[in-house]
Amino acid sequence: MRASRCRFVLLILAVACVAPWRAGATQPDFQALLSEAGARFTAPDGYRDAAVPGIEGFRFDKSFRDPQGGLQVAYAVRPLSRMKIDYNDPHSSAPNPNHIFPLVFGALGGQLSAGGHAPVREFPAGAAKKRFNADWASATTFDLEPQLSGDFRYGFLLAMHRNNKGDIYALFMYSDPATAKQRIGRLLANLSFDPAP
Fold first, then answer.
1. pLDDT tens digits for 24-50?
2. Which CATH architecture has domain 2-85+97-193?
3. Domain residue spans in the chain?
4. What is the distance between the alpha carbons of residues 47 and 63, in angstroms, rounded to a whole number?
5. Model pTM?
6. Measured in whole angstroms, how far is the alpha carbon of residue 28 from the centre of its chain?
7. Residue-wise pLDDT tens digits, 80-99
8. Buried b vs exposed e over 146-155: b needs ≥16 C-beta within 10 Å?
């Protein structure tokens, strides 16, 4: 039941509300999406492009694998300028695009995990601002859904939001937590929203 509900919420929010393109349209360039969202990212030396993981109802835009092969990261960038909300309820107003990200984050975590508990850590507002120039950031770790990746056992999902700019989701996949921690830290240092003007 929980997995079905997560899939439903994920499909509704991620496909209908936040997909920055439509079926058949050309996939936007990853760097262009970052620019539109007011964000920046630089892949560390040695990382190579990797196949983007296939997740029902949600699409990642870019994926990299570390040189040793023990870590893969996938990114989804959702500029608010591309967000289309098709909401048809005469009794209430459409959701504010600045309030959708926690729902997508929760649904995506449920979709990626192997049905187990995924503890969530929300960054204090000051820490989200200092580390990512974000207005909100949250992270969760979980056992990775086996059908998603045969190469990795664990997942770490980070989401960040900047008001009136965009959302970024980063999925880190690995099997050895001890070696992955340092590599994830380096990648997190290379991803942030631009400083406020």
1. 456 778 999 999 999 999 887 889 999
2. 3-Layer(aba) Sandwich (3.40)
3. 2-85+97-193
4. 10
5. 0.83
6. 16
7. 888 777 667 666 676 777 87
8. eebbeebebb
